[in-house]
Amino acid sequence: MFQFTRPLIKTSILPLRLLRFSSTEAYTNALTHLKKDLKAAMLAKDDTKKTTIRSMLSTIKNNEIAQNGKEATFSEFTLFDTYSKMIKESQESIKEFQENDRKDLMEKESAEMEIVKSYLRQLPVTSEEEVDVKVFELLKSLKENDKDLQIKNVFGKVNWRDLSNEWKTSPTVIKRSILRQFKDAL
């Protein structure tokens, strides 16, 4: 007599909150690794590592929320940029603590920065030194083709998505390297 219009069994394989539709495998693996390390730090009662990993996860989540409406792909390059930004902020904080003679805070910030650096090194991305070598070669080849090469033309000639995937690095790292080396390559 009664007809059910909805299936009795839930057909969803995974809840939506677990799916990361626009992320790479390396991104998902890095987040999983962070969460496992957070659990291990909690069990070991390692407060420095625990707070640092929580801060990292919070920053990553905030970046995801900020990119929610945009067509953004979350990749190891996104994590590289996030970790690099966190390291830069830590270096600035350490400098301020040093100027104000706060050695206790300086040591704490240094320990947290080393933890972030360890996760940065684990990412499957090319080092900045290797990128610098590739950028120098790129600038030399562009300069050979165009004698009046200007920096704005360099940025226009580069296919950022393909280049970052081919070189296994963030477009931000490539841009910084181009800015640093443009005059040297001339």
TrEMBL record:
Pfam families: YqeY. The keyword Acetylation does not apply. One of its GO terms (cellular component) is mitochondrion. GO terms for molecular function: carbon-nitrogen ligase activity, with glutamine as amido-N-donor. It is found in: Mitochondrion. SUPFAM superfamilies: GatB/YqeY motif. Keywords: Mitochondrion. Belongs to the AIM41 family. PANTHER family: ALTERED INHERITANCE OF MITOCHONDRIA PROTEIN 41, MITOCHONDRIAL. This is Altered inheritance of mitochondria protein 41. It comes from Naumovozyma castellii (Yeast).
